[in-house]
Structures are given as C-alpha cells and as structure tokens.
Amino acid sequence: MAKDSHQRAAEFHEQAAHAHRVAAAHHGKEDHLTGHELSRQAMEHSARAYRESQEALEKSAALATSGAKKS
C-alpha cells in the first residue's frame, strides 16, 4: 500500500517536470501566453506531487510505527 502511494507521488512529480519542460519550450519560442498557462499547470502538478509525497510519507511512517509495535 505504501509502495503504491510513493509510485503515485512519483508519477505526479514526472507530470510536473514534463509540464515545466513544455512551458519552458513555449517561453523560448516567445509564446508567452501559452507558456504562462503551462507554467500555471506545472505549478498545480507540483503542488499535487508535494501533497501526494506528504501522504506517502505519512502512510510509510504509520506502517513503520505499527510494524515496530508488533515486534
């Protein structure tokens, strides 16, 4: 279960990185309106990736804690 959470967070980080690369390409082509919109989307992906990473970390910590109590 925790592995799935980390995988999901990694996928959001990949989406954010891709969106940042696409936005940079549009800025480089002086397509600033599209570049700004893509930058906004990239920031949304980054925020989602951060939230998913935090949730994965919390789930991992909970699993580690519950595993330590069983020992």
How does this model look, in words?
The protein is mainly alpha-helical and 71 residues long. The chain has one domain (2-70). It is built from two helices and no strands. The protein has helices at residues 2-28, 32-70. The chain starts with a helix and ends with a helix. The mean pLDDT is 84.
Secondary structure layout:
Layout: H1 2-28, H2 32-70
Quickly describe the structure.
The protein has 71 residues and is an all-alpha fold. Helix content is 93%, strand content 0%.
Keywords:
71 residues; rod-shaped; mainly alpha; single chain; 2 helices
Number of helices: 2
Question: Helicity level, as a percent range?
Answer: over 70%
- The N- to C-terminal Cα distance equals 20 Å
> What number of domains?
1
State the major sheet.
none
Morphology = rod-shaped
